[in-house]
Every structure is written in structure tokens, then in C-alpha cells.
Specification:
binds biotin; 16 strands; seven-stranded mixed sheet; globular; alpha+beta; single chain; binds adenosine-5'-triphosphate
Length: 324
Amino acid sequence: MDTAPFSLLRILADGRFHSGEQLGRALGLSRAGVRNLVGRIEALGLRVIKVRGRGFRLAEALDLFESDVLAAGLKKISPELRVEVLDECPSTNTLLAERAAAGAPHGTVIVCEHQSAGRGRRGHSWVSVVGGSLAFSVLWRFPRGTGALGGLSLAVAVGAAKALERLGTHGVGVKWPNDLYCEGRKLGGILIESSGDALGPSAVIVGIGINVRLGTQTHERIGVPATDIASHSEAVPSRTAVFVESLDSIAEVLARFSREGFEPFRKEWLERHAWQGRRVALSQAGRRVAEGKVVGIAEDGALMLASVDGIERFHNGELSLRPG
Ligand code: ATP
Ligand code: BTN
């Protein structure tokens, strides 16, 4: 991977002017080389202001990972985790799945400054913005089989929601089976991909995307009603803080889920359930498979709908929940 644009970004992240000469010296580049890198930063969607005689500055200061704060934070959390911090990658889930297939240990975590081709469920894309999104994935090896992982995305959503609440985000809700919501808009998503036998053991990649601060252009790119932590907090936490707090909380959830399954998370999930009592339609591959009123979730994380046929249970996977 080419890390050069991020070396420049780390200098420009303060939002102040830096002369071409100073940047060239710091990066070992000619003036033309600096200009070339500035062009590549602009291609990442960032606006760079250029003033003759003063140099370059970002239109807005950028929240990149603070390496010392990150190192100190990671030291305090589960020693089971091995965290790799990258500048850029297409998808932390895809990369970690490759590493898992090559034997990466339980507890491997990949987080990146910028995820350029993030994935959601059912082949959808997940949009990230440099300095405003958080994207990371955790490899967890379960002794149980893939068949015993029902409810895992819900348990992880509880872990992420509690972390954001601790950081001061108001009104975090969950939507079955894998979303975080705030006031009817999507704040984050969870993508769980598993491999292994139905009877065990299994290797699970838990991917989490959280919007920390989205600009107007990013909202347009996303195309569905989205929101970010900044819109629901008095003091916006740094991406570093959001990462450390959510990773800590999710690792605790994964360890407990491994021992006890979904049941201990059910109550906390229902307390945050943004769609309780609403009329909804469930669809699969664009086809409506059921409609009814959401009455809750079962001990295994199945969605319970009251329909004309009585109470029906639906397990996650490829189902999509929309207002009915
Ligand atoms: P459903 O609501 O149908 O259960 P979902 O909301 O979990 O599914 P996916 O099918 O998993 O959606 O696909 C991801 C969805 O998230 C897409 O609709 C996409 O437009 C949207 N999306 C992509 N990036 C972001 C983002 N950064 N913030 C909020 N939503 C996003
Ligand atoms: C969804 O809402 O459908 C899930 C979105 C999951 C996005 C995260 S970001 C980190 C990880 N890497 C990916 O490519 N996707 C997940």
C-alpha cells in the first residue's frame, strides 16, 4: 500500500498553513512531489487551500488517529487483542478474512484511517470519509459452530451502543439485525462474516462502521438517511476515543457471547430497540416475505413479528426490515 498521502495528511491535519518547502523537507520530496501528493489528498475528497507565499492547508482540521493516545488506550484493554493500524485499505473485513484464512490468531483487529471500498450486507457498499468515519474488524474464533452464532450481530450492536453512550452520544438505538440508529437515521452498521463448521469451531469477522462526523457531501453519497456522533453529542469524542471505547466494549461482548450466547444481551437490546411496536415489512432479495408489528426478539436473537398468522420468528441473514 502507498502510505505517502497519509504522511502528508498527518502534517496538514492541524488545519494550519505549511509551506511547500517545509513539507518537501519533512517528506523528502521535491516541490513537484509535494504538489502531486496534494492532488492525491484532494482525490480522497478533502479540500486543500493553496496560497502563494504561505503554502497549503486543509480547509478544515482533520481528526486522524492520535498514535500515543491510541497506544495508551489499547494498553488498558483486553490483552487478547492484537491491533494493526493501517492508513488505508479497501475493506477491513475483506483484509481480515484473508488474514484469518492464512492463520491469523484469535483477537486480531484491523483498523484503518480510511476504508475505500467498505461493504455492508447483501453486497451493499459502506461509505467512509477520511477523518470522519471509523471502520474496524475483529477476528474472533469461537469453539461453537456457525449454527450457534444467531444473535451475535445484535449482541455486538449492544456493545457498540453502550460504548457510544459512555462517550456522551444521546439516543443511540438499535435496529434488527445489525444497525445502530439515532433519531431514525443510521449511525453505524455491523457486518458479521463467519466461516467454519456448523458444529464448530468457527472463525468470525466482526466488522463495525461508525459515523463520527459526516460532511454534507458524504450524506449525499450515502443516499439513505444517515447521522453521526457529532449530531448527537455535546462534546464530540475523537475517532481514537471512539475506537478504543468501542473495541473494548465489543471484545467484552464477544467473550461473554462465546460463553453464554445471546440471552444475557436480550434485555439491553430491547431497551434500545428503535422499532419496537412498529408495523414493518421484511423482504429478501427485493421480495416481501412478511409483514406485521414488531413485538420483540427471541432468546436466540430472532425477530418476532405479530402478523395475521400469529407470532412469527425470523432469523437474520439476508432479511431486510423496512417500515410497513
Ligand atoms: P436493512 O435496513 O435492509 O436491514 P441495512 O440498513 O443493514 O439493511 P445493508 O443492506 O446492510 O443495509 O447495506 C448498508 C446500507 O447502509 C445501505 O443502504 C447504504 O446505503 C447505507 N450506508 C452506506 N454507508 C453508510 C454510512 N456511512 N452511514 C449510514 N448508512 C450507510
Ligand atoms: C451494514 O450496515 O450493512 C454493515 C456495515 C458494516 C461496515 C463495516 S466498516 C468495517 C467493516 N469492513 C467492511 O467492509 N464493512 C464493515
